[in-house]
Amino acid sequence: MAQDAAPSIELVESWPAETTLDQPDIPDASEVWKAMIRGATRALDIAQFYISDAPGSRLGPVLREVEAAAARGVAVRVLVDETFRARYPESVERLARQPGIAVRHFDGRQTMGGVLHAKYFLVDGREVYLGSQNFDWRALEHIHEVGLRVRSPAVASTFASAFALDWALAGGAPVPSRGAPQARGSAPVMPVDVLQDGETVRLWPVGSPEGFLPDDLPWDLPRLRGLIDGAKQDVQVQLLTYRPASRDGAPFLELDRALRQAAARGVTVRLLVADWSKRKDTIEGLQRLAEVPGIEVKMTTIPRWSGGFVPFARVTHAKYLVVDGRVAWVGTSNWEGDYFTKSRNVGLIVEGGAIPRRLDRLFLDLWRGRYVEAVDPRATYTPPRIDSDAPPTPASP
């Protein structure tokens, strides 16, 4: 891609094989990733929860592009969370052995109390990809995912600040004081305006957790609450999981209250989650929400692949919000407390233009499709098999 390409934003997807979820007009993540990495000339910074490849997968060519970038002189930095070091070591260790690729493990639990759950990468300081896809072969072949490719040095610079902070922390830098400017994430931030197809698109980078954000990256939780509070007609939310609590059981009610209040003033609220939410600690909150007048809650179930059981896959993993078809958030957080208060996540609010409208149609296609069922407030649900041995916690992917 030319260095001076006009700023733009593009919706990107992944879909489970043997389903009807592919949207022909939305580019495939594996192809977008390869093109972006192939275009790198100076720097490539990758932040991922973990990296997991398999023989013959769609992720393999992506990782080879990363290695090829380093071989032609691009400075490559790879940041992954410490949590899965032992579980998925092969791909990360392979990259670390390549000249020109620096790898650091981020101890999110020690630093923030959670994990590096963000999934994004930056190319030459001029464009960024962020979305629900982990660097996991399953994310490209067996999971429904949504992300954004953003060509904008201003937007890339904001996420580069988050990467620089986490890279330094992973290298042993002291944890910033909660009162320090780089820890607040609450300073006034101007949006980035992009003219696309004759429409002005306003972009707001956001992130979490509140106490560990560079000063130019605002906390996403109050921004999400504000979007829902401003809804006039409808709110559509798709997530892997939704829970009005944190992992320790403490109430997390900011978003739950916002959805209930929106419904109370006549806004149509639709929440779509994956069937991984059939666990007791998540399904009960969904059942309570489904009882609220004006709120509909559904779950998706993706059929098993003909090639056999695929652990941690065959699921809808996208994370986005659309309000009135005019503004959207695409991010890396599930809507549970720890994702906003203890873990590194990133997102982008898109106001105006085609992206919110297209996401709205994407949501409704799935909502009305063959893979969904309404949440019954009185039903007893059995969690699906997720791992080959036992059901894991939904945050694993």
UniProtKB/TrEMBL annotation:
Gene Ontology annotations of biological process type: phosphorus metabolic process
Ranges for domain PLD phosphodiesterase: 112-139, 312-339
InterPro entries: Diverse_PLD-related, PLD-like_dom, PLipase_D/transphosphatidylase
Listed SMART domains: PLDc (SM00155)
Pfam family name, one: PLDc_2
MF terms (GO), sorted A to Z: catalytic activity
PROSITE patterns linked to this entry: PLD
Name recorded for this polypeptide: Phospholipase D family protein
Organism of this sequence: Chondromyces apiculatus DSM 436
